[in-house]
Amino acid sequence: MKVFCIANQKGGVGKTTTTVNLAAGLAKVGQRTLLIDLDPQGNATMGSGIDKRQLKLSVYDVLLESASILEARAKSEKLEESGCGYHVLGANRELAGAEIELVNLPRREQRLKAALVHAQAHYDFVLIDCPPSLSLLTLNGLCSAHGVVVPMQCEYFALEGLTDLVNTIKQVHANLNRELQLIGLLRVMFDPRITLQQQVSDQLKGHFGEKVFNTIIPRNVRLAEAPSYGLPGVVFDANAKGSVAFVEFAREMVQRVGGSKEKAPA
Ligand code: ADP
Ligand code: MG
Predict the structure, then answer these.
(1) Closest ligand to 91 CA?
(2) Tens digit of each residue's pLDDT (9 = 90 or more) over 139-187
(3) Which end of the chain is more exposed for a tag (fewer CB within 10 A), N or C?
């Protein structure tokens, strides 16, 4: 079981879209996948077809040790039928309170990691959708993970924000989680017609070389429309160019970090 955080301290950069579509893409190529929503906004939960207002148990209960992951996980029927089914440990506004409740608890940044031990045998991949902050919730994600995937838009200030994130990853690596690595930077919402985006993309390659994923996720309205149907873009419109790119990215992830052998399509 490999655990990855999808993180970037900026909001609206494509973290949730990446988490949900990578989860569906991994499922499509035969990986047993669990998505953990660590953002109180619950967008990844809703975008996976799970109503955050109806959750009986959520990641909140897991962090406070009143439920296990296997008890609290949910799955969407629609997703299961699509052949891209993955499980979801959901979140809703209740999770915002966990931040405060955790502060005075022992091992406050290691709670998710401890809970994941019991899910070990059940999944090939665990993807954690992080909130747009470097909070105690994000720290729980980073302490649980083998690596971080950073979605980013190729815009002027993108590189600046990256320095903070890279430093945080280094600090967590040094003090809390020796396994943590930067797996790669994923260029998202990319529009090749915009010269500046090409320039920033080239700069990224110059600075980070191999750490930049080969796959580029284009700007594609189908990916933005899909969440209102409670489906990842990859399922909602499998032929849209954004969806095709995410499945390609799932394959690149499996190649880069290893997974279970790809199953032949049914
Ligand atoms: P974050 O989780 O980082 O806040 P989101 O994944 O929610 O970011 O994305 C922010 C907005 O951009 C959402 O409205 C989403 O639908 C849209 N979006 C994300 N990726 C794409 C894409 N490749 N093409 C078009 N719209 C996108
Ligand atoms: Mg989000």
Answers:
(1) 2
(2) 999 999 999 999 999 998 888 888 889 999 999 999 999 999 999 999 9
(3) C
- Evaluate whether residue 180 is within a structural domain: yes
At 112-121, the pLDDT tens digits run 999 999 999 9
Task: Tell me the residue type at 75.
Answer: K
Query: SS in 3 state form for 78-119?
Result: HHHHHCCCCEEECCCCHHHHHHHHHHCCCCCCCHHHHHHHHH
Going from the Cα of 264 to the center of ligand 2, the distance in angstroms, rounded, reads 32
What's the structural domain count of the chain?
A: 1
| Residues 66-116 pLDDT 10s | 999 999 999 999 999 999 999 999 999 999 999 899 999 999 999 999 999
Which residue, by CA, sits nearest to atom 13 of ligand 1?
A: 224
Residues with CB under 5 A from ligand 2 (ion): 15-16, 43
Among all bound ligands, the one having the nearest atom to the CA of 42 is: 2
Give the domain range for residue 70.
2-257
Which atom of ligand 1 is nearest to 190's Cα? 23
- Rounded CA separation 265/49 (Å): 23
pTM of structure: 0.96
CATH at 116: 3.40.50.300
